[in-house]
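Hi F.,

I've been meaning to write this up properly since the lab meeting, where we talked about keeping a consistent format for the predictions we share between groups. The idea is simple: the sequence comes first, exactly as it goes in, then the structure tokens exactly as they come out, then a line or two of notes. No screenshots and no reformatting. I'm using this chain as the first example so we have something concrete to point to.
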Amino acid sequence: MKKFILDLTVSASEHLRKGYVLLKLTDSRPLPPMLPGQFAELKVEGSETTFLRRPISINYVDEEKNEVWFLIHEVGDGTRKLGELSEGGKLNVVMPLGNGFTMPETPDERVLLVGGGVGTAPLLYMGKKMAEAGCRPTFLLGGRSTADLLQLEMFRALGDVYVTTEDGSMGEKGFVTQHSLLSQEHFDRIATCGPKPMMMAVARYARAAGSSCEVSLENMMACGLGACLCCVEKTVEGHVCVCKEGPVFNINKLLWQI
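Output, unedited:
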């Protein structure tokens, strides 16, 4: 897909909870087409310690409002600066980057979308595109506590939502791969994004269940174009740049010990 460098306008900056900001960006021209699972490189202005753009997953696209959403987890100076942007501000963005998730081939496919922490972000847009195609997804979302489960109402509007929390404050207590749903139902296709140990556990489950599975890797991506070689991953096809060949990979292409 063609890539664009855009100066977008902040239409909203919503603090969903401490350390998490939802940036909604728009433009006077129609935004370019974007696929679920793709990401953008956001330029950070005004930080003395941040010299590189920050790779952020595309959280949602609202075509009617001509908006693209990014869920920002403020973990360092760069992301904190992005969280300080206010309505009307400008943000330079390179997008869309990478390859996205594979969409279901038929509406009756049983698809499970598994997310942990901020890794739930790209699954919202995936669920939206699936719903538009007539396929109702099942979401399995996990966090440390209730406060970590963001945008739940939007997920519930798109499909069936199951939840785990490590402290038991919502849904079943434990990790997503311990949810009773996984022993009760079979899914044709699974897509997951979140901490690597979680994705590896989901991949093991998928292989045992005979389900097709894709994971969205979060290797450090400095350029987003495959030039800096920061995000190299070993695969069955050799070393590849996650930002260019991914971030979404079928687990059969990865050399994880699963």
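Notes:
The chain is about 20% helix and 35% strand.
The domain at 111-253 is CATH 3.40.50.80 (Rossmann fold).

If this format works for you, I'll send the rest the same way.

G.
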